[in-house]
UniProtKB/TrEMBL annotation:
Its EC number is 3.6.1.59. This is m7GpppX diphosphatase. Decapping scavenger enzyme that catalyzes the cleavage of a residual cap structure following the degradation of mRNAs by the 3'->5' exosome-mediated mRNA decay pathway. InterPro entries: DcpS/DCS2, HIT-like_sf, Scavenger_mRNA_decap_enz_N. One of its GO terms (molecular function) is RNA 7-methylguanosine cap binding.
């Protein structure tokens, strides 16, 4: 789901036609390691240019947790104290896989996105949005042709969970690339709106309420039907700032602390609807808080407005 940088070169394939992309890329830089979420992000390069890969250990699932301890499992005792024992376990490979998400070819923006950097909280007034953020979006945003490919079903049509094709209130719901799809514990879907020209929650007002309510109701119903999770078991929210500027909404299992579901990043859909019902142009007037990494180009733009926002 990353943008393309020119015409791709011929890739290595196995006898069955499976692409062997990873074997053509040398990963030599560790961008970030998240010990809490058990993720690692690496950068490298190959014939087509730079590459970024996200490695993620998968959560335990109810279906397979007990299988890890079946049979003659390889293990190593680390220490024992009275009744307490700590082991290293080496389960079968099919119970110990790592999910890898590759962006290739990758741009500098992709590399910076996954790099370990200091973070700053920005309090963006409506004036700052119009003077700083909006010009930045129009000039610097990533190519989102991949979004339009999904909406037109040129790619990923087999992954669609639900679609409402209405051009005004319709959307496509599909699993997010961050979810392996193998267990419900970390269920993560995303809804892409069919309507174009809505960049983020900043563009929303009362004329978008039918769209937002339609996504909340039909998206929740589709997830309940497909995955068995009730609407009150879902965290449904926007990112601000989003990683790409075509309106989309995130659906998580509420028990899963998904990346970007924290304060100053996530804005709940129900809260957005309520705020617009109270004031139709709420998001055009409100001061919104969000987090930027120190090498984000938008942060540089805010530094030039030091009289309104202090960043050292």
């Amino acid at each position: 789901m990353a943008e393309s940088n020119g015409s791709p070169k011929k890739r290595k394939v196995d006898e069955d036609g499976t692409e062997k992309i990873l074997s053509t890329i040398k990963f030599d830089t560790i961008l970030r390691i998240d010990t809490e979420k058990k993720n690692a992000f690496l950068a490298g390069s190959g014939e087509q240019g730079d590459a970024v890969i996200a490695l993620e250990k998968q959560p335990f699932s109810k279906e397979t947790a007990a299988d890890i301890l079946e049979g003659d499992i390889s293990n190593e005792l680390i220490f024992k104290n009275d009744v307490y024992h700590t082991f290293k376990l080496f389960p079968k490979s099919n119970l110990n896989f790592i999910k890898a998400t590759l962006t290739y070819p990758a741009t500098q923006k992709h590399i910076l996105k996954y790099s370990d950097q200091k973070r700053y909280v920005i309090e963006e007034t409506s004036k700052l949005y119009n003077d700083v953020t909006l010009p930045f979006i129009l000039q610097e945003q990533m190519n989102i042709e991949w979004v339009f490919n999904i909406l037109s079903k040129k790619t990923e049509s087999e992954r669609i969970v639900y679609e409402d094709p209405d051009p005004n209130v319709g959307f496509i719901l599909l699993p997010d690339m961050k979810w392996s799809g193998l267990q419900l514990e970390d269920m993560y879907c995303v809804a892409l709106v069919h309507a174009r020209g809505i960049k983020s929650i900043r563009d929303l007002d009362d004329k978008h309420l039918p769209l937002l309510k339609n996504i909340k109701i039909k998206g929740s119903e589709a997830i309940q039907k497909k995955y068995g999770l009730e609407s009150n078991q879902l965290r449904i929210y926007f990112h601000y700032q989003p990683s790409y500027y075509h309106l989309h909404i995130h659906f998580n299992n509420i028990s899963y602390e998904a990346p970007g579901s924290n304060v100053a990043t996530a804005y709940l859909l129900s809260d957005v609807i309520n705020n617009i019902e109270l004031m139709s142009d709420y998001y055009k007037k409100a001061t919104l808080s969000f987090v930027l990494k120190e090498q984000h180009k938008l942060l540089e733009k805010f530094k030039s407005h030091s009289e309104e926002i202090a960043i050292e």
